[in-house]
Design goal:
The chain has 14 helices and 14 strands. It is an alpha/beta fold. The N terminus is likely disordered.
Length: 417
């Protein structure tokens, strides 16, 4: 009997030890990922004045659904194939709501990471929390220069931008104006979110190049209309207009300019220049002649009609998110961001957030669906936090953007903010 009790006691102790080891292993498991699934998140402006950026999150949802349903998931660097559970919340691009969503995504939903969150202010509002929880906040839709500068990367290593830094884009636009319109009288308009970063860079570059800025205006998201500001810019006598605002206000600007007969050379920064999201809603005829910097292939360009990535994007976007217009560059951006995440996951050697970030910060000439030929993703630890540092200037011909000049590559040369 004693022997039996001894055996029973030994078995019981062994079982408890095994359970303790299992519990310890479970407690140290990485949140948001197991052998079959990755929980992934997004916080997007699905409502409010910046809802024009909502397609970024919605196109990501379509892309991940396609990957799950038709590819069986993503084969990561550890050899296991996982499906993506995608969770998206509306933040109206408001910093407080973006932070609230971050808390919900991490604390309640247990996401492994997030991507494509739009807006400089919204991403700044949540950046500290994502990094304190060591949750990847990657390929964010903002060109705020702070997201890639070395000192900020060291402080917030889990945050990575998708866009060309606004100050780099601004310097390129200033150089383009100097070359093409050297005697220009320039009017500058920016919003009060990411716009000031672009404008600061543009004003600095313009001064260095000797460009003449005759009037600079700023507007806030809360303003219902910018008609009065457009009237003042027109009255300044400017013949080049640098337009640094969001799709809703780009539409307003184009319509007002047409109404008052102001016809300057019009340049719109990349985040406001979507054909489907801004130019067509304003009127293709009204928008004809607009310049912008390009980094993604344009669905409206017949040159990409037989492009394999473009055909797949158009077909699957229609299937999984039929309410989106593939000509909307914000939808194309969402599709690209999903694929950029996929390429990083494929290079992630261990199912941990740290391993994912290490893969994201060691990209070398990495291609991703819909990027223009000649533009690739490049990062180098904390010394280079800007994945994209190249641009192609283009001019809208009423249907598509026609390339102007060659791709301008600033790799490793993004100016200090």
């Amino acid at each position: 009997m004693l022997r039996r009790n001894g055996i029973t006691s030994f078995v019981l102790k062994s079982s408890l030890a095994a359970l303790a080891l299992a519990a310890a292993a479970t407690s140290h498991a990485e949140p948001g990922i197991n052998d079959k699934e990755i929980i992934w998140g997004n916080s997007s402006p699905l409502s409010g004045p910046n809802a024009g950026y909502g397609p970024i999150g919605r196109a990501q949802r379509a892309c991940f659904q396609y990957i799950n349903d038709e590819l069986g998931g993503i084969k990561m660097g550890d050899g296991k194939t996982r499906k993506v559970k995608y969770i998206m919340y509306d933040d109206a691009m408001e910093p407080a709501r973006a932070l609230q969503n971050a808390r919900r995504l991490i604390s309640q939903d247990g996401v492994f990471g997030v991507s494509g969150n739009a807006g400089t202010g919204a991403n700044l509002g949540a950046r500290t929390f994502y990094n304190s929880e060591k949750v990847p906040q990657v390929f964010i839709f903002s060109g705020g220069p702070m997201f890639g500068v070395k000192e900020e990367v060291e402080k917030y290593p889990y945050t990575i931008p998708a866009l060309l830094a606004y100050n780099t884009e601004a310097a390129l636009y200033a150089a383009f104006i100097k070359e093409k319109f050297p005697n220009a009288k320039i009017a500058l308009l920016n919003d009060d979110s990411g716009g000031p970063f672009f404008s600061k860079g543009f004003l600095k570059a313009a001064k260095e190049l000797g460009l003449n800025i005759v009037l600079h205006e700023e507007h806030s998201y809360s303003e219902p209309t910018i008609d009065a500001k457009i009237d003042r810019l027109a009255a300044s006598g400017a013949n080049v207009f640098v337009d640094v605002t969001t799709p809703k206000f780009v539409v307003q600007a184009l319509k007002r300019m047409n109404a008052i007969g102001w016809k300057p050379e019009h340049m719109i920064w990349g985040v406001g220049s979507s054909i489907g999201g801004a130019l067509v809603p304003a009127g293709a005829d009204v928008s004809k002649g607009v310049y912008t910097g390009l980094w993604l292939k344009d669905q409206a360009d017949p040159a990409y009609a037989n492009d394999a990535d473009m055909k797949l994007y158009v077909e699957k976007l229609k299937k999984y998110e039929s309410g989106l217009n593939p000509a909307d560059q914000n939808a194309a951006a969402g599709w690209f961001i999903c694929n950029a995440v996929k390429t990083v996951l494929e290079r992630t050697k261990e199912p941990t957030r740290q391993s994912f970030i290490e893969a994201a910060r060691s990209m070398k000439q990495q291609k991703a669906a819909l990027l223009l030929e000649g533009i690739t993703l490049n990062t180098n630890g904390t010394s280079d936090g800007y994945p994209i540092e190249a641009i192609q200037m283009g001019q809208f011909d009423g249907t598509k953007y026609v390339p102007v000049g060659a791709i301008i590559n600033y790799e490793g040369k993004t100016p200090a903010p």
